[in-house]
Amino acid sequence: MPFEAAALAARAHQHQKRKDNQTPYVSHVFRVCLVVRHTFGFDDPKMLAAALLHDTIEDTTIDCDDIIERFGGDVAKWVAALTKDMRLPHDEREAVYAKELATADWQVKALKLADLYDNLSDSKHLSPGGRRKTAAKARFYLDAIRQALPDQVRSALALVEQRLTELERSLTP
């Protein structure tokens, strides 16, 4: 399952770049998958597939039906929970997304933590303003994830909080 998800993610994100306009975007989803497996220690093939696909609905032409058909209901449900409704105005979209993260399955919380971990780790190339924005966004999402936090993801949360603290310290003069 993760191999097929990696191939789909690579095709779906093939022309996209990270914020530095140089790094292929797909490297982000591959790193998120690696964080889920090797940093957080989750080896469920469905979670690994969802990690690889976590940005496909939001950022590509792949839709939830495609994911259901190829990877099943659990993967599609988790990817959908990680997808912001881009039709909404920014502030409303973020509020709805945070509310959904607060009540999400533990797997979704773990996947979002891996996403945050990678974004924080990859923020070194950003301007100080970009790093501050990344830190503020991470803090906002962590506040949502922390609500009703299951035991399975407590250690992952601690790792992300440590990474966020390191970034925030680097921004302090």
TrEMBL record:
Signal peptide residue numbers: none
A molecular function GO annotation: guanosine-3',5'-bis(diphosphate) 3'-diphosphatase activity
Keywords annotated in UniProt: Hydrolase
Pfam families: HD_4 (PF13328)
Top-level taxon of the source organism: Bacteria
Designated name of the protein: HD/PDEase domain-containing protein
Organism the protein comes from: Gemmata massiliana
